[in-house]
Design a protein that fits this description.
alpha/beta, TIM Barrel, 8-stranded parallel sheet, 8 strands, globular, binds 2-phosphoglycolic acid
């Protein structure tokens, strides 16, 4: 399974280094694929069994894009993994689907492993499951769902950082629908905690989790890795 930590705008370079060391030590003993997405300023050449990815980058080698980083800055640290389409970039930073698709295409052409996020806001969820699936379908526009280095993360916007989550049944239903669109590994994200992670990981069509706030505690994040190992040993 895939256990991924999105550190967002948290931790200094020093704190990130010790976090990566602690999680790395644990992950070494695990059969899971463990990914960490640190803040931009904490990207580095880490000697670690973890997959280190970038939370964002502009679709360019370099150039005049104030405040952004491009391929060149990722290549310096041999970063070959990127998060695209996260709801905070869609909704806070205002990234359009067209721009997200352009970014996807660029990093796909560069052979990056892409964790691509989709998910509906609260009002769409309240409008029902048909509206939810229609909304998410639009987030697949311009995205090559057959790309072999694609990982998809279903993250309902209303569940991110709120402590709210869909029911297990709802996750199962929506993941079954999303699996029809792509056979890529499918993660669940949105208020994943040590109290619910194992239940999510045990579901059909859930191939892992993408964790924000709870992942800031290395110990909690390692517990989630342990859950995945346990489930695999139980032949999930
Ligand atoms: P959360 O964030 O775990 O804090 O809800 C998840 C995410 O944004 O990837």
């Amino acid at each position: 399974m895939i256990i991924a930590a999105n550190l967002k705008t948290n931790f200094t370079r020093k704190e990130t280094a010790s976090y990566i060391e602690e999680v790395g030590k644990y992950a070494q003993k695990s059969a899971q694929k463990v990914m960490v997405f640190p803040a931009m300023t904490s990207l580095d050449n880490y000697l670690t069994p973890l997959t280190i990815g970038s939370q964002n980058a502009y679709p360019t080698l370099n150039g005049a894009f104030t405040g952004e980083i491009g391929l060149e800055q990722l290549q310096e640290f041999e970063i070959k993994t990127i998060l695209i389409g996260h709801s905070e970039r869609r909704h806070i930073l205002g990234e359009s689907q067209a721009f997200i698709a352009q970014k996807f295409e660029y990093f796909k052409d560069q052979g990056f492993e892409i964790v691509y996020c989709v998910g509906e806001p609260k009002e769409v969820r309240e409008a029902g499951s048909e509206a939810t699936l229609e909304y998410i379908a639009k987030q697949y526009e311009g995205i090559d769902t057959t790309y072999d280095k694609l990982i998809i993360a279903y993250e309902p916007v209303w569940a991110i950082g709120t402590g709210l989550t869909p029911t297990l049944k709802d996750i199962e239903t929506i993941h079954a629908e999303l699996k029809k669109k792509s056979t890529a590994p499918l993660l669940y994200g949105g208020s994943v905690k040590i109290t619910n992670a194992k239940d999510f990981l045990a579901l059909d069509n859930v191939d892992g989790v993408l964790v924000g706030s709870a992942a800031l505690y290395a110990e909690h994040f390692c517990t989630m890795i342990e859950y995945a190992d346990e489930l695999e040993n139980e032949n999930k």
